[in-house]
Amino acid sequence: MANIIVLHQYPAMAERLIRTLYHRKFDFYVHLDNKVDIAPFIPLSSLPNTFFVQERKTVHWAGFSQLEAIGASLRAIFSSGRSYDYVNLLSGQDYPIKPTGYIYDFLNAYIGHSFLTSETPPTAWWNEAHQRYTRYHLIDYSFRGKHRLENILSNLLPQREFPLPYQLYGGPLAAYWTLSGEAAFYLSQFLSERTCYSFFKHTWAPDEFLVNTLLMNSPLSNMIINDNYRYIDRSGGGSHPKVLTMEDLNCLQHSSRLFARKFDPNIDNQIQDEIDRTILYTKNWV
Q1: How far is it, in rounded angstroms, from Cα 41 to Cα 7?
Q2: Tens digit of pLDDT for each residue in 30-75?
Q3: Which domains are assigned to the chain?
Q4: 181-192 pLDDT, tens per residue?
Q5: What is the pLDDT of residue 195?
């Protein structure tokens, strides 16, 4: 498995993630936001099976640039000369909640499958999400007055229509996934060819619907399991998932998920220690 780790902060936390998830058949491709000084992150390159993505992108939250970073990481993976059964997307604030051996055995039983969480319109999420592409969004641009320009463009120009003749798929849990090598290559080709690039460059958070829509309308759709096996708490609403703390430990202990997000050492610096002690390194898994 090739693990993409998209980073912009917390180098020590990223190191912990890589060391905890280490397996001789797992590689790690680290994409560091180009806005960020690389110096504190350089020690990551000395970790086993760990490689920096050289094509660094400047990433803006909710921008198409997040998918550009993923595309750069996929190109690094497929130009490496290595062959992978899976490509797994993680952020630096994710953490496994199953031992690495368990994760390996689980995925080994589903070779050829991909794991995505999707929903299709109409749903409460999609009722709000349509404006992500029907209106103009300039997330990846930095100039004064851009929000005013967004409103002018969206109000004066015809409503934008999704440019592909596809059923839409996406959702609040859709941005993170584990893809088969074949599905990851299919996605990489789309992102590298820049198909409909100008359209998606002006959408809001396309990582929560574009990947799922592409793959669920592809010839590979029959090999997709509608579950990304992430524990993510979106019950509070809003644009961000809950930061997991010690009060979530019991739910994590009883979860069937493989990974959880998100964690923040500035909010709770004990929860990962307890995951290690009670889940990852307990004798129950030996």
Answers
A1: 9
A2: 999 999 999 999 999 999 999 999 999 999 999 999 999 999 999 9
A3: 2-285 (3.90.550)
A4: 999 999 999 999
A5: 78
Instruction: Write out the two tokens for 202.
Output: 């002006």
- Which sign, positive or negative, has the C-alpha torsion 156, 158, 162, 167? positive
Which helix (H) or strand (E) is 88 found in, with range?
strand 86-91
Q: For tokens 């969004």, name the residue.
A: 137
Phi, psi values for residue 224, rounded to 5°: -105, 130
Q: Report angle CA 32, 230, 267 to the nearest 5 degrees.
A: 65
- Structure-block tokens of residue 2: 């090739």
Q: Which residues lie across from 260 on neighbouring strands?
A: 95, 231
Q: Which residues, 6+ apart, have CB-to-CB distance to 247 below 8 Å?
A: none
Q: How far apart are CA 62 and CA 9, in angstroms?
A: 17
Question: Letter for the amino acid at 68?
Answer: E
CA separation, residue 35 to residues 9, 30, 58, 252, 273 (Å): 11, 15, 6, 33, 30
Q: At 65, which helix (H) or strand (E)? A: helix 65-78
Query: What pTM, to 2 d.p., does this model score?
Result: 0.96
